[in-house]
Amino acid sequence: MYAVTLEEFGEPDVMRWSEVPDLPEPGPGEVSIDVVAAGVNRADLLQRKGFYPPPPGASETLGLECSGVIAAVGEGVRDHRPGDRVCALLSGGGYAERVVVPATQVLPVPEGLDLAAAAALPEVAATVWSNLVMRAGLHAGQTLLIHGGGSGIGTHAIQVAVSRGARVAVTAGSQLKLDRCKELGASIPINYRDEDFVAVLGEFGGADIILDNMGAAYLQRNVDALAEDGQLCIIGMQGGVNGELNVAGLLGKRGTIHATNLRRRPATGRSSKAEIIAEVRRHLWPLVAEGTVAPIVHAELPVTEAAEAHRLLDSPETVGKVILRIRES
Ligand SMILES: NC(=O)c1ccc[n+]([C@@H]2O[C@H](COP(=O)([O-])OP(=O)(O)OC[C@H]3O[C@@H](n4cnc5c(N)ncnc54)[C@H](OP(=O)(O)O)[C@@H]3O)[C@@H](O)[C@H]2O)c1
């Protein structure tokens, strides 16, 4: 089969579409998928540069999510059959013609949803749902601040939060991104280049929940922007890993800081990918099926142009996800 390989760690052009050994047949509880499209994530850019090695046992090939058609099912798999249109959360290996994945990480693609576009969903759906709903309990009437509102994660989080009746504030670095966030339902747009998000949130009584991609750089200001009993969910480290915090401020407002990583969760058991995907399927998937929450795809490129896709994700003009087309559906 063919897959994207890395000649070495480095710039986007180190990626090659090359012949690699075929994968084994799916084992008990696993399925194999003929991949139609793979989502591109910020984590892939880091892995390509050598900064984000896959967890033990995961494929070395890039790609944390895909869509496609079930090729074969292993022993004990009841939920899926060969020929089913699906998308899947992966620990790696999505930039390839075929993947083998635990059946518990596979979701059916609702009728009417474009199969390639569905590759844009599993990673954002699992990340957003596990943080905002399962951890922080986001509900109607709350104010949510999403940093990087125009990102793949941000554009999905806006839709989920609006569907739950929350008021959504977003930060972004350009008017183009803020306008798109408003179209998706955000009502408090903040350009982080010339506005202070702490001051803006202060006018609205603070944020009940913050979804943060910046880590250390925003740590103190995020706590400052929280409302009483507010919760900060850190999912990214784009602003570094070592921060300083005045703990008194957090105590005073009875704040909570969560920090989670999806890829390193176990496949099954407590806090696992299986647990999250089951919740996503039960509660979020009906919203996807009815079109309330949709994949936001900025661009679809052939997998042979993976380098261009990585450059595109890094560009300030990109709103939402970039996906790689592996084969026609
Ligand atoms: N923990 C987990 O399990 C998990 C899972 C998935 C993703 N993530 C993380 O979630 C984040 C988003 O992922 P993605 O794949 O959706 O990334 P993405 O589409 O590449 O988006 C990254 C975003 O960061 C924004 N940004 C840059 N500087 C900023 C600043 N100072 N303040 C606010 N936003 C800023 C950029 O927007 P502007 O152009 O507006 O600056 C861009 O939209 C990443 O940090 C990623 O590592 C974590």
From TrEMBL:
<dbReference type="InterPro" id="IPR011032">
    <property type="entry name" value="GroES-like_sf"/>
</dbReference>
<dbReference type="GO" id="GO:0070402">
    <property type="term" value="F:NADPH binding"/>
</dbReference>
<dbReference type="InterPro" id="IPR013154">
    <property type="entry name" value="ADH-like_N"/>
</dbReference>
<dbReference type="InterPro" id="IPR014189">
    <property type="entry name" value="Quinone_OxRdtase_PIG3"/>
</dbReference>
<dbReference type="InterPro" id="IPR036291">
    <property type="entry name" value="NAD(P)-bd_dom_sf"/>
</dbReference>
<feature type="domain" description="Enoyl reductase (ER)">
    <location>
        <begin position="10"/>
        <end position="324"/>
    </location>
</feature>
<dbReference type="Pfam" id="PF08240">
    <property type="entry name" value="ADH_N"/>
</dbReference>
<dbReference type="InterPro" id="IPR013149">
    <property type="entry name" value="ADH-like_C"/>
</dbReference>
<dbReference type="Pfam" id="PF00107">
    <property type="entry name" value="ADH_zinc_N"/>
</dbReference>
<dbReference type="GO" id="GO:0016651">
    <property type="term" value="F:oxidoreductase activity, acting on NAD(P)H"/>
</dbReference>
<protein>
    <submittedName>
        <fullName>Putative PIG3 family NAD(P)H quinone oxidoreductase</fullName>
    </submittedName>
</protein>
<keyword id="KW-0560">Oxidoreductase</keyword>
<keyword id="KW-0521">NADP</keyword>
<dbReference type="InterPro" id="IPR020843">
    <property type="entry name" value="ER"/>
</dbReference>
